[in-house]
Amino acid sequence: MEFDKLVDATGLNCPLPILRCKKGLSEINEHQILKVISTDAGSVKDFNAFCVQTGHELLQLDSDNGTYTFYIKKREN
Q1: Looking at residue 21, what DSSP letter applies?
Q2: Parallel, antiparallel, or unpaired: how do β-strands 67-73 and 57-64 relate?
């Protein structure tokens, strides 16, 4: 999937992947896509809840050997 910005949060534990995601979203325009890579198993639950609470859209979640890749579409302001 194409994306506009990458945030690498590998090796970081909660809440750092979400905090890095928030920073990444603040650096892109609405409707652009942020790719976040995380190795924190709890991030699956965290990113789902984050998107529901903030209105950003989780477009895709890929999981491969303990690495989780999220594609998040920034909401309209």
Answers
A1: H
A2: antiparallel
| CATH number reported for the structural domain that contains residue 14 in this entry | 3.30.110.40
Active site residue 21: no
Assess contact for 71 and 60: CB atoms under 8 A: yes
Reported as a pLDDT band with limits 50, 70 and 90, residue 66 is very high
Mean pLDDT of the chain: 97
From the list 4, 5, 14, 22, the catalytic residue is 14
Q: Residue 15: is the preceding peptide bond cis (ω within 30°)?
A: yes
Range of the domain at 53: 5-73
Classify residue 45 by burial, with Cβ atoms within 10 Å: 0-12, 13-18, 19+.
exposed
**What is the spatial distance between Cα 63 and Cα 70, in angstroms, rounded to a whole number?**
9
* Number of domains present in the structure of the chain: 1
34: its two tokens: 């942020």
